[in-house]
Amino acid sequence: ALQELRSANFIRFMGYSLPETDAYVRYLLKYAGVKTEHLKGIDIICQDPDGKVRSRYESFIELPLRFANKDIGMYLRQLRFEVTGRPSDAPMIPELEAIHDSFMHTLVGA
Asked: What is the pTM for the complete model shown?
């Protein structure tokens, strides 16, 4: 996990609230150095009714991030809707990236 984080271009947290008590993940992220030269962005999709989740991420991660205060199920339903009916052998990575980016742009700050 450490090596993957260090070489990541993007990090996406989906449905994870970064609780104060999860010392292992916090240590892993700090040790990996989320300031790597390869890292282009951090996106978080998580329900956050009182703003505490977003606050935890913003105080822990020193890089700009995009935060969508939404249920991860909404994100997964949108992915499913967008890819239904496509040939199974079609390359999906560029399309998945476009769908993700559209979802995040639509909901940033929500």
From this structure: 0.77
